[in-house]
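idk why but the lab printer keeps eating my pages so im just putting this in chat instead. protein + guanine:
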Amino acid sequence: MRFKYVAGKYSCVTQTQTQLIDGTEVAASIRSDLISSVNRITNTGTTPQLATVLMNDDPASQTYVSMKHDDCEEVGIETRDITIDPEAPAAELFDTVDELNTDPSIHGILVQMPLPDHVDEREVLRRIDPKKDVDGFHPENVGRLVAGQPRYKPCTPHGIQKLLIAADIETEGADAVVIGRSNIVGKPMANLLIQKADAGNATVTLCHSRTNDLASKTREADIVIAAAGVPEMIDGDMLSAGTVVIDVGINRVETETGSELVGDVEFESAAEKADAITPVPGGVGPMTRAMLLWNTVKATAITTDVSVELP
Ligand code: GUN
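predcted complex ->
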């Protein structure tokens, strides 16, 4: 299957079987379904509200946070936008989190990572009320997920599960290789894939920067989930025919004419081998954002005791 990148998205230019898993479309459908969940809560007198806290100068982080606000607005979730000077003492961030924890009008709290070096990220994550921890990074929520009783699944792996379900990918009994051991993606992804649940029941190999002979692992896989943050590190030679490829990477690389976004997968050669593949952009990224909304609606339902159906 050959794809061409035109006007911001990949299009198929030859006729074979490879399925392009369209995260933009699935995410739009989830957002649309979430509107009725939000309306149901709002009709009880509470409007869901997400607070974001940004304590860095990184333009990419600023863009991510601003997109999260736009998404919230689209589905009827209110937002509070807090920025803290990256030079400020850590205590300022801790005080902000404490205030948000006790503010009943705030249902979800997201502290955008990375944080400045003088702030202990783990201490911040521990400080967020686990019921408002819409990232799912608090140790209580991590423990619940590992124990098979998730409260908030981290947004990227949760979004990937939704994509696999939407694309009709069978995970039960599949050999899945997850590349990357981050707390945000790799570890929770591996944990979710082994659970006795939808988009679970897979046999998982978790690979990372010290894995020997990565290609021998990926060639054995039915599903490859690349989340190492290394531009185009997986190519078609590392895959067997018929693999499902999920690309979590969003890497900006320099080109002769400027720069472009690429994933952790070399798309053209991987698409030649894959049965199904996610593009970058337009694959996992929009799903991560949609699942933040999902978690925020769930957080509102939990903290206000309103029962609500989620898509
Ligand atoms: N920075 C990069 N990804 C994430 C994420 O999923 N949540 C937060 N809070 N910060 C991030």
